[in-house]
Amino acid sequence: MDAAAIERLERDAVAGVGPREVVEIAGWLAPLEDGTIGRAKSAVPLRHDLGPDAIGEVEAAYRSRGLPPAFRVADLPELAPVHAELSARGYQPCDATIFKIGDVTGLAAVSEACGRILSQPDDAWTAVFQGDGFDPADGAYRMEALGRANTAYGASGEGEATHAVGVVSFGEACAGVHGMRTAPAHRGKGHAAAVLAALGRAAEARGLGRVALQVLEANETARRLYRRAGFTPAWRYHYWRKP
């Protein structure tokens, strides 16, 4: 993947989670937000050959707004000087995450079930997203943040019921999948795949050909679903935070 493609992916990944403020500092894209979405509050290098020189300036941007500095950096040899500088400043890597990319057409074909697309979350959608098995405060924040982005909402379930939900963001070059959640009592029934297919069709309708998502490395259940949907790893990254 060339440098321009990497930059487009990272810009769309940040825009898709709706941070209130974003600044660019010497090759870093820094979303300045407080909340529970890691990508909305962690600076990311727009190139994979970026050096560590501007890390102090990025830290100052967060601190000037009363926010704890944090970074999201790919685990690549080219970025080893950045890893070393962050470590020297007291940051530690955590939450290993896989950045995956896929084809919108393949995503739309992952299920023949009829998922639904909503322009806004309704009560049934919200009940799943903030329901049993999930942190309601985290869910409320994520709904607010995703609502600030250019998004649509997917839902699926038995009959007219909603048992699984998700969000698709529409970027300049790439769609993004976010917020995939299935009610615990209805897992393993294909509802999440139906939501993904609906999100893929929504992205197709917007003329987007590529789709991306980010999933915790430890979440093997979700990773299996995303492999079925045609997603492949682009790179792994860690968040770097101070303990």
Give a topology summary.
Blueprint: H1 3-15, E1 22-25, E2 28-31, E3 44-45, H2 55-64, E4 71-74, H3 80-88, E5 92-103, H4 104-108, E6 116-118, H5 123-129, H6 136-148, E7 151-156, E8 164-170, E9 175-182, H7 191-205, E10 210-216, H8 220-228, E11 232-241
Describe the structure in your own words:
This protein is α+β, with helices and mostly antiparallel strands and 243 residues long. It folds into two domains: 3-97, no CATH class; 102-235, Gcn5-related N-acetyltransferase (GNAT) (Aminopeptidase, 3-Layer(aba) Sandwich). The chain is 33% helix and 28% strand. It is built from eight helices and eleven strands. The chain has helices at residues 3-15, 55-64, 80-88, 104-108, 123-129, 136-148, 191-205, 220-228; strands at 22-25, 28-31, 44-45, 71-74, 92-103, 116-118, 151-156, 164-170, 175-182, 210-216, 232-241. Strands 4-11-5-10-9-8-7-6 form an eight-stranded mixed sheet, sandwiched between helices. A three-stranded antiparallel sheet has the order 1-2-3, with helices on both faces. It is globular, with a radius of gyration of 18 Å. It starts with a helix and ends with a strand. 44% of the residues are buried. The model has no long low-confidence stretch (mean pLDDT 97).
